[in-house]
Amino acid sequence: MAATLELRRLSKRYEAAHALQEVSFVANEGEFVVVVGPSGCGKSTLLRVVAGLDEISSGEVVLNGRVVNTIEPKDRDIAMVFQNYALYPHMSVEGNMAYGLRMRGVTKPEIAKRVRDVAQLLELTPLLKRMPRELSGGQRQRVAIGRAIVRQPSLFLFDEPLSNLDARLRAQMRLELRKLHRRLGVTSIYVTHDQTEAMTLGERIVVMIEGRIQQIGSPTEIYERPASVFVASFIGSPPMNLFKATFAANGEWMTFSGKVDLRLAQARPNLAGAPVVLGLRPEHLRCGSRDEHALPVTIDTIETLGFEQLVYGDVDGQPVVLRVPSHEVFRPGETTWAHFAPESVHYFNASTGQRLNTALTC
Ligand code: ADP
Ligand code: MG
Fold it and tell me: What is the dihedral of CA 92, 164, 39, 79, to 10 degrees?
């Protein structure tokens, strides 16, 4: 049975670090939740306390409605997959997959059946007799996942399981993990520092920084309505352009460090006089002719990606990147004008970094 996991104001303090601060969220039965954040934000700590490998400083881990804070890891019905595979080097693939079951006293025929079934599911059957050193990185990771699946846990915890693989294999394994989750339907918490992985895998994404949750939402919600400057700059590649600017007293114009003025298609009387951070995604900027509703971009470098190109430059000294069709021609040193639709503008509080525009998509 797939578990429901609820975290209630979880905190974990180390002597030098406050690794988790009042972290609360629910993973529903069968859900695949991705926790994403930069290195050191507390992702591994989060999984370790859920698994029971680390003690919690305060808060509760609730599994299927029961507080499990004091329950031993082996009695939590959770399987964890680590970044470094953690296979036993002196055991074959089969041995590695069977080991946890043997320790739990599962019968021999039952072990053989489960290993056979999971090996088939993960296309590991031809590799069962091999030793870990005779496997590629991708195959080892698949064995590590297989070892978790044979246990038939009600909750999977994945700690950056794909980070040691090359880009092509990572993309392939992402697809396999999605398929696998669809077939098994086991509730999963997957942590990663890679925003692409989070966007492509997560049904729901939890964005963390410095031990705190910044935002919880679907990939689309998080992409379209980032709750803070941090989320805006962390999710999306290349990241959202963020400009420091100040609203004029009438809320119709914005000033960029005194030189560049921008007339807004939608006035913001409520923000009159306010210093803000203005956010625009690279793909929401179009190049056009001079206009008071557009930003002057001094072009620096151009990166061709095939059907599109990335144009890097600055707006009054603040860096900007535009994602535009590859047939448009740009030259370093030129100035172009970046146009955008009013609904693609994001505003953030200049001092707190929190999102200001809460209505609709802007
Ligand atoms: P992530 O997995 O997101 O990279 P971690 O959960 O490993 O982050 O670490 C979160 C914070 O807690 C970091 O500041 C890290 O240095 C600290 N930390 C992690 N484990 C320990 C530990 N065993 N003792 C002391 N500090 C730790
Ligand atoms: Mg980690």
Answer: -30
Give the number of other CB atoms < 10 A from CB of residue 323: 18
Measured at the alpha carbon of residue 27, what is the angle toward residues 22 and 31, in degrees to the nearest 5?
155
**Which ligand 1 atom sits nearest the alpha carbon of residue 12?**
12
Mean pLDDT of 242-252: 91
Question: What's the CA-to-centroid distance between 99 and ligand 2, angstroms?
Answer: 25
Measured by CA distance, the residue closest to atom 13 of ligand 1 is 40
Identify which has the larger pLDDT, 49 or 163.
Answer: 49
Write out residues with Cβ below 6 Å of ligand 1.
Answer: 14, 16-17, 19, 37, 39-45
Q: Is the pLDDT of residue 265 over 90?
A: no
pTM for this model (two decimals): 0.91
CA of 159 to the centre of ligand 2 (A): 7
Atom of ligand 1 at shortest range from CA of 15: 25
Q: Using DSSP bridges, classify how beta strands 295-304 and 286-288 pair: parallel, antiparallel or unpaired.
A: unpaired
- The DSSP bridge partners found for residue 263 are 253
Ligand 2 centre and the CA of 32: distance in Å?
A: 18
Tell which phi-psi region holds residue 9, choosing left (phi > 0), alpha (psi between -120 and 50) or beta. Answer: left
Pocket test for ligand 1, best of 12, 14, 193 (most atoms within 8 A of CB): 14
Determine the length of the chain: 362
- The CA R_g of the chain, rounded to the nearest whole Å, is 25
**Which ligand does the CA of 38 lie closest to?**
1
**How far apart are the CA of 40 and the centre of ligand 1, in A?**
6
318 near 361, Cβ under 8 Å? no
SS3 content of the chain, % helix, strand, coil (to 5): 30, 35, 40
* Other Cβ atoms within 10 Å of 351 Cβ, number: 9
pLDDT digits 0-9 by tens, 305-340: 998 999 999 999 999 999 999 999 999 999 999 999
**Ligand nearest, relative to CA of residue 211:** 1
